[in-house]
Amino acid sequence: MATRTASRRVKGETLHDGFLRHRGFRWLKICTVFSLVAIVAYCLVDVTPRHNGGSWLGYVLGTIGALQILWLTALGLRKRAMTRGRWSLKAWTSAHVYIGLSLIVIATLHTGFQFGLNVHTLAYALMMVVIVSGMVGVGFYATLPSALSSNREEMTQPQMIDALRSIDRQLHDAAQPLDHHLAALVRGSLEQDPFGGGLMRRLSGHYPGCATRAAQAAIRRETAYKPKLGEDPIDKVDALLVRKEAILGRVRRHLKLKAMLEVWLYIHVPVTFALIAALSAHIVSVFFYW
Amino acid sequence: MRFLIRQISRTADGREIVRPVTLEQPVITVGRLADNDIHLADLAVTPRHAEIARLDARGIVVRALDTLGFDVDGRTVMSVEIDAAEGAELKFGAHRLTIGLDGDAVTIAVERVQALSDATGDKDEQRVFSLRGLLPGKRLSAWAFAGLVLAAFLVAPIMTWATYRAAPQRPAGFHADSLWSSGALSQAHQGLKDNCQACHKDAFVSVTDDACLTCHKDTHDHADPMRLAAAKAPPGAGARVGLMFAAAFNRPQGRCVECHGEHEGAGPMQPAAQRFCADCHGGMKERLGDTQLLDASDFGTAHPEFRPAVIVRPGGDHPVVRRISFTAHPREENGLKFPHKLHLSTTNGVARMAQTMAGEQGFGQSLVCKDCHTPDATGTRFQPVDMERDCAMCHSLAFDQIGGTIRTLRHGDPAQVVADLRAYYRGTGPERPPSLGGMARRRPGDYAQGRTYYAYFGAVAARGGQAEQAVRAVFSPGGACFDCHSIDRQGDAASAGFRVQPVSQNARYFLKGWFDHDAHRTETCESCHAAPTSGSAGDLLIPDLALCRTCHVGEGGAALRRVAEPVASGCALCHSYHADDGAPWSTRQRVARIKDGTNAGAARGGRR
Q1: Using one digit for the tens of pLDDT, what is the confidence trace for B28-51?
Q2: How does the average pLDDT of chain B come out, rounded?
Q3: Is B289 helix (H, G, I), strand (E, B) or coil?
Q4: Cα A127 to Cα A275: distance, rounded to the nearest angstrom
Q5: Which residues contact A284 (CB under 8 A, 6 or more apart)?
Q6: Which of helix, strand or coil describes residue B19?
Q7: A18 touching B, CB under 8 A?
Q8: What is the share, in percent, of chain A residues with pLDDT greater than 70?
């Protein structure tokens, strides 16, 4: 009981309400009811010999589904205008998520569970790719921002770049007295692009070719059996490399999280357009070979 | 021998700061260590990288001191001589040394031209922290994907259609418009799967009957189109909306494809659903007052009692038949006397006789249906019962034996029977008793009544008159003909005035519906035909509606009373829309399937 009392919202207090919970899950409720109505209709309507997109129910579901797709795509235009109130962007986004999910039900019923190697199933498959990528995106949006902010520790992106630059300058200066082969290791670290690596490196956060780590390891091997006298410039370089690695680690985690927040959109958006193309072909084909 | 070194650095806003140093010596060194004359804080430069020596007033030589060389005008060398008046550009690591001549001094401008690390170079924050550059842009891939899909799934199929629009035949193989197929074609139409245009002839025009009639030339309509239109039930609210849409989207009503839907899977085409029939037949009496047909909309719940075609006057090739409802308890007049009950009894003399003939005729403990009834070649119906084949094994018409040869009366020809009997009595005498003796002398008293001579010669004297008696006996109660046939005295002299009523056997009782015995092999004969209790040949042993309904229910499972193992039966199970003498289309399909294709020919083109 104590916890319930504690978590109850005090009257008048406004808490942050994400787009998923917007207005007490209003759009979740609307879309659930809508989907259930569609399922019940599907079960009650007798279509011979079996359900398909060409029955009256099929045409109704198909028309609704196509309109849903067009409306969902309109978020791309709508999001560029951020507004408040009843038709706020948040409300729109909330509806986008739940209407998008209900599309799974509507479109699947529209197919009558008949699939094949044709433009119709292509449109359905592309739609499912878009929806699943959207679900992944929602999942990322729900979980990653907290991880992102705890990783940043209030550090901004320009600050991260500045930190790297600062450590690079210090490394550069500290490495001046070193022998050429050690200097070359440090130079490797300096010349490697901290933002380099392909998409997979970015998403996995694994950088096996990291020159900084390689330089640090090589210098450790070099100095392993040397007494630490405190005046050897190599010790300073070693310490700087350790610091650089730490900063790089943070930057790379940041990059990974940012990449995950972004990458689903690289599927979600282009496949949406492929879907609209397939949907157009689907609709035209039906009337063309009427 | 002067060198003028100009160290150039730049402020944040790009302004140059030059710090000149003059060195009065013939040789200067270049390297990373601070004690070099030209000190390059550059990790790509070795501690003592090179020396520069003057050769004369204009010439200098640059020599690498370590294993690493340096770049001169883009080439890597270990040593180079330079005319300072002509100038040159040297590159050590990230530094550029520009050689020149100023009076008698060789000038060397030293400038860092590359950032000391990658991170200290230009970084666009927005760009480096995003995936831009790692993936093709969203806009680009959106257009590319959409373009590809449209090209492959819209443009290519339309081009295929346009290419072969006027062509009489499309070449075999893949055509892009098959990507539009909404499902596999049925078995019968498999040959058309690459030829969409066989049915879809014009763009945005729904499939017309002409396309179907190209192949299905003989298919005739169900009834006069005007009467068809009049018989149809007026559409309800939902159907009216449907009709409105159909009109708006150019879908005329009454086409073949309305009942015969395609692209519903590769199996056999489904028979038309019950509702297509019930639309008209459900309440046709109201709409078509003069129709003879009774209303029917569901076999399980709304089907009139059967009206079997019963023979009312037998004889000839076309006996008179009349369709009489079972509610009127029809009896059949087939001209025979035949109690099924007597023949199927398991306890009477017939059964006993069957047992004695078991070895000879293959009978069991008693007679069963198949002992007398033989199915026809298709298994649908039964061959007419044939006296010689199906009855004569018991009901022999033998009347004489000469040597080993049995003489029989000819079945179906009364005049011949009469003639044969008369001939028999005329040509043969009574058997001569052995006690009659040979040519020995007769004694008085031998001719006395009761003695052998009296008996024998009396019989000889009366022989001719016995023929008429035998003829009468054959056509009278207890006689071979009379027991099975109706006999009257309307005959001519050749048949001694006797006439056998003509006999007709009914091969098909249900003229409007179709019954297939082969499909009912899981049942016993008695479960439908009450033969074991029938005492008269006039009993109609055909099952009525109620009996069929003990298994058969409506297409959707509707039934008036509970059915243990219901057989869903749409109209098309027994009836044909495009009716002919053969089995309904769906039955032909099913039989073909059951018989593993042996009936496939009949199923395909079997409308006889």
Answers
A1: 999 998 889 999 988 889 989 999
A2: 86
A3: coil
A4: 6
A5: B154
A6: strand
A7: no
A8: 93
Nearest to B138 among A59, A165, A270 (CB): A270
- And the tokens for B331? 């009896």
Pairing of strands B50-54, B27-31: antiparallel
Q: Identify the bridge partners of residue B80 per DSSP, sorted by sequence position.
A: B62
pLDDT per residue over A7-40, tens digit each?
A: 454 454 455 677 888 888 889 999 999 999 999 9
Contacts of A288 in chain B (CB under 8 A): 157-158, 161, 180, 200, 203-204
Distance from CA of B538 to the nearest CA of A (A): 44
- Interchain proximity B129–A157, CB inside 8 Å: yes
Q: Is the dihedral of CA A199, A204, A206, A212 positive or negative?
A: positive
For residue B177, the chain A residue with the least C-alpha distance is: A285
Residue B297 to residue B304: CA distance in whole angstroms:
10
Is B118 close to A287, i.e. CB distance below 8 A? no
Q: 3-class DSSP state for residue B71?
A: strand
- CB contact, 8 Å: A89 with chain B? no
Six token digits for residue A149 = 């902010």
* Cβ under 8 Å to A: B residues 3-62: 32-34, 41, 43-44, 46-47
Q: What are the two backbone dihedrals, phi and then psi, of residue A78, each rounded to the nearest 5 degrees? A: -65, -35
**CB-CB under 8 Å, B130 with A277:** no
Any CB–CB contact under 8 A between A115 and chain B?
A: no
Question: In terms of pLDDT, which residue wins out, A60 or B456?
Answer: A60
Closest to A237 measured CA to CA, from A280, A166, A186: A186
What is each CA distance from B414 to B421, B464, B475, B491, in whole angstroms? 11, 20, 9, 9
Q: Do A244 and A189 meet the contact criterion of CB atoms below 8 Å apart?
A: yes
B253 vs chain A: nearest CA distance in angstroms?
A: 14
CB contact under 8 A, A161 and B125: yes
C-alpha B475, offset from chain centre: 58
Chain B nearest-CA distance from A257, in A, is: 10
Quote the minimal CA–CA distance from B264 to chain A in Å. Answer: 8
Taking alpha carbons only, the member of B90, B126, B83 closest to residue B106 is B83
pLDDT band for B566, please (50, 70, 90 cuts). very high
Write the pLDDT tens digit of every residue in B461-504.
Answer: 666 667 888 888 888 888 888 888 988 888 888 888 888 888 99
* Of the partner residues B135, B154, B204, the one whose CB lies closest to the CB of residue A287: B204
What DSSP character marks residue B494?
G
Burial of residue B64 (CB within 10 Å: 0-12, 13-18, 19+) is buried
Angle between helices A22-44 and A89-111 (to 10 degrees): 20
> Taking a C-beta distance cutoff of 8 angstroms, is the pair B507, B332 a contact?
no
Whether A265 has its CB under 8 Å from any CB of chain B: the answer is yes
Instruction: Please report the ipTM that was assigned to this predicted complex.
Output: 0.86
Burial of B68 (0-12, 13-18, 19+ CB in 10 A): middle
Q: Could you give all domains of chain B from N- to C-terminal order, each with its CATH number?
A: 2-112 (2.60.200.20), 152-270 (no CATH), 398-434+445-500 (no CATH), 511-605 (no CATH)
Q: Which residue has the higher pLDDT, A134 or A7?
A: A134
